[in-house]
């Protein structure tokens, strides 16, 4: 018998939740391709190790951009690899797949996501919106007639939504998320230190000393890269205050997006959000003091999910159980 799976198809990582087993896969959304013959050299963790370090004929590709499929064939190859690796297909049956998408996804993009899941070995494919699934994975009861607000900051998109009775009431999707944070750090260090670094280095800086609010003035990190003036390797000291400065403009677009969603929210639901607070999910929620920054500007309590990185994948597990029990009742 095939095992149903939930897929958090992220710009940065793919997480897969298998019915009855929980999260069984968490790997980077990267595929290494040999440009000479188009063959897949590596997928996931192995391909991520190659980012920025490949020879001319090998290209490490991120097939998703801003939460949607940018390269259909590579996405299909990546999903097929992961599904084969998990061995979830039955002798005669294909697994049902629940897959997630940002709230601003177009009908064409929705079809592409469903088609990629079907071609990679899925049977019945269900599509759900990321903030709804993230809210469920964070433990919010979104099926009651009360307002819940979630800000899901992934690799490619930040999805902001107010939910009630199992549906999205108001939402906004932004392209400033984890990857853009890394790019902001790269640009800042290039401009202020004349040093060229890669996005993997920027991500390491963000994780080590990154802060959204009230950065530690004494925290710093040694950063190696290429001097843009003479092309030679160079090491500089970057402070936590500088990293915060590099992220400020982008993070304020998240605050502005959250304000916009709140302004469109019916007053009864707004009152619930004041009581219950805003839930932060996604890898971006791990940025130090992000909850304080949002709470400071919106004057609403902000909480971070217990497992922000896994929230969407955990939510797919709950929804898969609901689908299975609904099937049993009908059967």
Automatic annotation (TrEMBL):
Localization of this protein: Cytoplasm
Q: Name one GO biological process term.
A: regulation of cell shape
Residues that bind ATP: 11-13, 155-157, 203-206, 283-286
Name of the protein this chain belongs to? Cell shape-determining protein MreB
Q: Does the keyword Zinc apply?
A: no
Q: Where are the transmembrane segments?
A: none
Q: Which Gene3D superfamilies match?
A: 3.30.420.40
Native organism is Amylolactobacillus amylotrophicus DSM 20534
Q: Which gene encodes it?
A: mreB
